[in-house]
Design a protein that fits this description.
This is ActR/PrrA/RegA family redox response regulator transcription factor. With 181 residues, the protein is of the alpha/beta class. It is built from 8 helices and 7 strands, in the order βαβαβββαβαβαααα. It folds into 2 domains: 112 residues, Rossmann fold; 39 residues, Arc Repressor Mutant, subunit A, CATH 1.10.10.60.
Length: 181
């Protein structure tokens, strides 16, 4: 197996609205040799990317002012060789696929420790993910379908609700919840 082409500069942008987690991860990544910059919002993350695109990024999916995928997209446009990882507590297949299409190299569920983040960034993890032991529940399959349609509608709640024949407020409540097991 060949080693991935890693950016030579070890600049790392961390974007997360959980300040304690952000601080802990920043310290852990600094001990691993990264020069870390932090942002707590999508707007701050995009501004950091615009000023000086980092070689690496770890971006939370759901932030107070929007979707972390916007930061990934801006980073990939500014610096195609950058390696970005998406972190989320709201994991689903549709957003993982979208993240990869926008330039992310991996998608980790929270809580992720610094070792997992480092492995994802540097490509030093295993080549294949293990197969799941249990199939998805019916609730999880429904959740995944809703998320896929939501992504296909460019995260437009009204259009998604129309296509799913669902009331918009009901859809908003579903989207605000964590994914079922």
């Amino acid at each position: 197996m060949t080693e991935p082409n890693l950016p030579q500069d070890l600049t790392l942008l961390l974007v997360d609205d959980d300040k304690p987690f952000l601080t802990r991860l920043a310290r852990a990544m600094e001990t691993r040799g990264f020069v870390v910059r932090m942002a707590e919002t999508v707007a701050e993350g995009i501004e950091q990317v615009r000023k000086e695109p980092p070689g690496y990024a770890v971006v939370d999916l759901r932030l107070g002012d929007g979707n972390g995928l916007d930061v990934i997209e801006a980073l990939h446009r500014s610096r195609p060789d950058a390696r970005a990882v998406v972190l989320t507590g709201y994991g689903n297949i549709a957003t993982a696929v979208t993240a990869v299409k926008l330039g992310a190299i991996d998608y980790l569920a929270k809580p992720a420790d610094a070792d997992a983040v480092y492995s994802a960034l540097t490509g030093s993890g295993g080549a294949r993910a293990a197969l799941p032991e249990n199939p998805m529940s019916a609730d999880r399959v429904r959740w995944e379908h809703i998320q896929r349609v939501y992504e296909l509608c460019n995260r437009n709640v009204s259009e998604t609700a129309r296509r799913l024949n669902m009331h918009r407020r009901t859809l908003q409540r579903i989207l605000a919840k964590r994914a079922p097991k």
